[in-house]
Design goal:
Number of strands: 0
Order of helices and strands: HHHH
Largest sheet: none
Radius of gyration: 15 Å
Number of helices: 4
Mean pLDDT: 95
Distance between the termini: 11 Å
Number of domains: 1
């Protein structure tokens, strides 16, 4: 269940980051509210996952999912550009997160 909680935390992390972009500096009501709620949910589910997972592994995976998710959504939702070095660095994060999951002893 801890891995599922971590996945939920990561989904909520990406959601609050995207909603924050839509909030326009917290000047638009609904995206601002979505940001606040999903920020809290992300922290709650991360804390649930930490009952059984190592802090370093869980936190690295949570932030890694967030980086990858927001990078991909930034391209599709906001037409942000990623350079080749940025894509390579995000790929390294994916490799690192995959390695952490495969090698985790939880």
């Amino acid at each position: 269940m801890s891995w599922f909680y971590l996945l939920l935390a990561a989904v909520f992390e990406v959601t609050w980051a995207v909603a924050m972009k839509y909030s326009n500096g917290f000047t638009v009501l609904w995206p601002s509210l979505i940001t606040a709620v999903t920020y809290i949910l992300s922290a709650v589910f991360l804390s649930f996952s930490l009952k059984d997972l190592n802090l370093g592994t869980a936190y690295a995976m949570w932030t890694g999912f967030g980086i990858v998710g927001t990078s991909v959504l930034g391209v599709f939702l906001f037409q942000e550009k990623l350079s080749v070095p940025q894509v390579l660095c995000v790929a390294l994060i994916v490799i690192g997160v995959t390695g952490l999951r495969l090698l985790a002893k939880e």
